[in-house]
Write a structure and sequence with these properties.
By secondary structure, the chain is of the alpha/beta class. Helices cover 46% and strands 13% of the residues. α7 packs across α8, α9 runs antiparallel to α10 and α9 packs antiparallel against α12. Its main location: Golgi.
Length: 646
C-alpha cells in the first residue's frame, strides 16, 4: 500500500509541472504580441515628429523619395516613435520590381533612406551655414500657406493698419512668422499632408467640451499636491469627485449637444474647487512636475494622432481607388469575352508615320490617360493628324485595349502598347521590362535667416529612356504625363526650333543645378542649368539617338547604384545642356498639391499639370481644380456607372 502511494506522487508532480509550463507559455504568447503592439519594448520618451527615412542629405540639401517624409531631430526623437515608423514603412506600398533591381531604396512611388552628403556650394553654404534644405520625392508646394501677400510676416493691409503700433506689430509679426514656419516644418516632415490638413481644418464649435477638458487638465495637475495635505481632506475629496464626474461625462460625449443637463452647474463647481486649490499653500515644484507630465502625455497623444493621420493620408493617395480597380477588372474581363478586332492596316501605318503628330503617354490608369487624350483632341485644330501611343503594363494592357477600341476620340488614332512586350536591341539576356511612371520630388530649402521655400519637380522615369527603341521610325514626339489636361491646341509644338536640343521642357529656375552641386557628388555641374519638369515635353528622337541620351542615363544609374534618388540625379545630369526651355505659359503646374491658385489662371492655362499626390481622380483631389479634369470624363459611360465612378 505504501509503495503504491509513494510511487504515484512523482507522476502527479510531473503532471502539475507540465500544466504550469503550458499555462506559462500561453500567458507569454498573449503578453509578447501586446508588448510589441503597444511599442512598450522601445520604452517611453519625449514626443517627436519623425516619420520615414530621408533619401539623402547634404549640408544644406536633403533628398527624399516621392512618398517618403523627412526625418528630423536628435536621436531621442527618432527612438521615441520607432515602432510607429516601422509600422508605417511596413504598410507603405512596396517598391516596383524594376527599380529594386537597379538600385537600392528608390522607386517611382517610394520611401527611402540614404547616407549624408556634403553641403551646398560654398557661396550658398556660407550664406546659410545653419540652414537646411530638403529635396523630397513627393509633390507639394507652399508659398505662405494662406496665399496672402506678406510684409515682414504680416499681410500688407494689416501692416498698414497697425503702422502706429510698432511693438504690437512686431510681436504679431513674430507670432505669424512662427506659425508659418511651423507649417513649413510640418510640410518638411509630412509633405503635402500638412497642406491638406491646413485646408481641411474644421472649425471647433464645441466650446463647452473644450472648457471641460481644460478644467479637468488643471484639476489633475493640482490634485496630487492637495491629496498629500491632511488638512485639506474635504477639498481633496471634492476635487476627486469632480474629476471623476468630468471623466465620466467626457468618456461618452465629444460635442456640446450631447452634454447632460445641468452641465453649467458642474462647470461652476469645478471652477470653484480649482480656485480653492490655487489659493492653498502647496509645493509648486510638485504642481509644476505634474503639469509637465500632462503636457508630455498630451504632446505624445497629439504626435501619435498626427502621425497616424499622415499615414492614412499617404495610404489614401498611394492606393488605387476601389472604383478604379473595378473599372480595370471589368474591362479586362469584357476584353476576353469579346476581344477587340485586329487593327486596321491603315491605322497601323498611321502609328509609324513620322509626318503625323505623335503623343506618348506612360500610364497604368485607364481613366487618366483617356482624359488626357480627350482633352487634347477636343482642343485640336486638326485631330486627324494626331496619333496617341499609350504605353502601359501587362496588368492594364487588355483593359486599355478594350477601352480605346470602344471609345472614339474624334479623328485621332490611339495605339496601346505593352511595355513588357517591347523587344530591345541591347537586351540580350531578355531581362523583363517593367513600367515606371514619372518620378516626383519635393525640394525644400529651410533657412535660418530667411523664410523657408519649397519647390516641386517631376522628371522622366526609367521607362522614358526607352523611347528611341520603342518608336524606331519616329523623329519627334510630345510626351504627356497622365495627370495633365490640355486646354489649347498643341500643334505649335511641332513648329518649335529647339536649336539642336533634345528635350523641350518647362524649366524651374528656382532650383538650379549649382544649388545641388554636392547632391551630385563629384559629377560636373553646369551652374547656369535649371531643373526641368516632365508633364509636357517635346522630344527630338533624332538628336536623342545621336547624343546617346539613353546610354548616358544608364551609365549614370550604374555609377550611382548605391545612392538614393537615382532617377532625379541621373535625369538632371543626363539632360545637362540638352534642354530647350519652353515658355512658362505652356504649363501650369502644382495642381496636385498647391492650394490657392487663381482660378482665372487655371482657366487660361494651355496645359494643366496635376503633379502632386492629390490627383484629380482621387477623393483627396483639390476640388477647385478637379472640375477641370472631370469634364473630360463621360459620366454616362456604362462601365463608369457600374463601378460607381462619378
Amino acid at each position: 500500500m505504501k509503495g503504491g502511494i509513494g510511487g504515484a506522487l512523482p507522476a502527479k508532480r510531473r503532471w502539475k509541472g507540465f500544466v504550469i509550463a503550458v499555462l506559462g507559455l500561453v500567458l507569454l504568447s498573449l503578453l509578447v504580441p501586446l508588448v510589441f503592439l503597444l511599442g512598450l519594448h522601445n520604452g517611453f520618451h519625449s514626443s517627436g515628429l519623425t516619420t520615414a527615412q530621408q533619401s539623402s542629405t547634404s549640408n544644406g540639401v536633403r533628398v527624399y523619395s516621392r512618398h517618403s517624409t523627412a526625418k528630423n531631430g536628435n536621436q531621442s526623437e527618432g527612438d521615441e516613435s520607432r515602432h510607429m515608423d516601422d509600422l508605417m514603412r511596413r504598410l507603405e506600398p512596396t517598391f516596383s520590381k524594376d527599380i529594386r533591381e537597379n538600385f537600392v531604396g528608390e522607386a517611382e512611388n517610394k520611401t527611402a533612406g540614404s547616407p549624408l552628403l556634403d553641403g551646398l556650394p560654398k557661396e550658398r553654404s556660407r550664406a546659410n551655414s545653419t540652414g537646411v534644405a530638403a529635396v523630397h520625392a513627393a509633390t507639394e508646394n507652399i508659398k505662405g500657406i494662406d496665399g496672402s501677400p506678406m510684409l515682414d510676416g504680416l499681410p500688407k493691409e494689416r501692416s498698414r493698419a497697425n503702422s502706429t503700433s510698432v511693438a504690437t506689430t512686431h510681436a504679431a509679426t513674430e507670432n505669424i512668422k512662427g506659425i508659418d514656419e511651423g507649417e513649413k516644418l510640418c510640410e518638411l516632415k509630412f509633405g503635402s499632408y500638412c497642406l491638406w490638413r491646413h485646408n481641411h481644418k474644421e472649425k471647433v464649435n464645441d466650446l463647452t467640451v473644450r472648457k471641460m477638458k481644460d478644467l479637468l487638465y488643471v484639476a489633475r495637475a493640482y490634485y496630487p499636491s492637495i491629496a498629500k495635505l491632511p488638512a485639506l481632506d474635504k477639498l481633496s475629496h471634492e476635487m476627486k469627485q469632480n474629476i471623476q464626474e468630468f471623466e465620466r461625462v467626457l468618456s461618452v460625449t465629444t460635442i456640446d449637444k450631447d452634454l447632460p443637463p445641468l452641465i453649467d452647474q458642474k462647470l461652476t463647481k469645478m471652477e470653484a474647487v480649482i480656485a480653492q486649490a490655487k489659493a492653498c499653500r502647496v509645493d509648486c515644484s510638485n504642481v509644476d512636475k505634474k503639469f509637465r507630465q500632462l503636457v508630455d502625455l498630451t504632446e505624445d497623444e497629439a504626435t501619435f494622432h498626427m502621425r497616424q493621420s499622415a499615414f492614412l493620408y499617404q495610404l489614401a493617395v498611394q492606393t488605387m481607388p476601389k472604383s478604379h480597380h473595378c473599372l480595370s477588372m471589368r474591362l479586362t474581363v469584357e476584353y476576353f469575352r469579346d476581344p477587340s478586332p485586329d487593327i486596321d492596316q491603315s491605322l497601323a501605318e498611321r502609328h509609324l508615320n513620322p509626318d503625323l503628330h505623335h503623343f506618348v503617354i506612360f500610364s497604368n490608369n485607364v481613366l487618366a490617360s483617356s482624359a488626357v487624350i480627350n482633352s487634347t483632341v477636343m482642343h485640336a485644330k486638326e485631330s486627324e493628324s494626331q496619333v496617341f501611343h499609350v504605353v502601359t503594363d501587362r496588368q492594364n494592357y487588355f483593359a486599355m485595349k478594350l477601352w480605346f477600341s470602344r471609345n472614339k476620340y474624334m479623328e485621332a488614332t490611339v495605339e496601346v502598347l505593352n511595355i513588357e512586350d517591347v523587344k530591345l536591341d541591347n537586351n540580350k539576356a531578355s531581362t523583363p521590362i517593367h513600367l515606371s511612371l514619372p518620378d516626383e520630388y519635393r525640394v525644400s530649402f529651410h533657412k535660418v535667416d530667411r523664410p523657408s521655400t519649397t519647390e516641386y519637380l517631376s522628371v522622366f522615369s526609367h521607362s522614358h529612356y526607352l523611347l528611341p527603341q520603342i518608336f524606331h521610325s519616329l523623329k519627334k514626339v510630345v510626351v504627356l504625363d497622365d495627370d495633365v489636361i490640355v486646354q489649347r491646341d498643341l500643334s505649335d509644338l511641332w513648329g518649335i526650333d529647339m536649336d539642336g536640343k533634345v528635350n523641350g521642357a518647362v524649366q524651374s529656375c528656382s532650383v538650379r543645378l549649382a544649388q545641388l552641386r554636392k547632391f551630385f557628388g563629384n559629377k560636373r555641374v553646369d551652374e547656369t542649368s535649371c531643373a526641368w519638369m516632365s508633364g509636357l515635353n517635346v522630344v527630338d528622337l533624332v538628336r536623342w539617338r545621336e547624343q546617346d541620351i539613353s546610354g548616358r542615363y544608364l551609365k549614370l544609374v550604374k555609377e550611382m547604384n548605391s545612392e538614393e534618388a537615382v532617377t532625379l540625379r541621373a535625369s538632371l545630369l543626363t539632360f545637362q545642356g540638352e534642354v530647350y526651355a519652353l515658355d512658362d505659359k505652356w504649363v501650369l503646374s502644382g495642381l496636385g498639391h498647391k492650394y490657392g491658385v487663381d482660378i482665372e489662371a487655371v482657366k487660361n492655362a494651355r496645359v494643366l499639370h496635376f503633379n502632386g499626390k492629390m490627383k484629380p481622380w482621387l477623393e483627396l483631389g483639390i476640388h477647385d481644380y478637379t472640375v477641370f479634369w472631370r469634364k473630360f470624363v463621360d459620366p454616362e459611360n456604362q462601365f463608369l456607372s457600374d463601378c460607381n465612378i462619378n
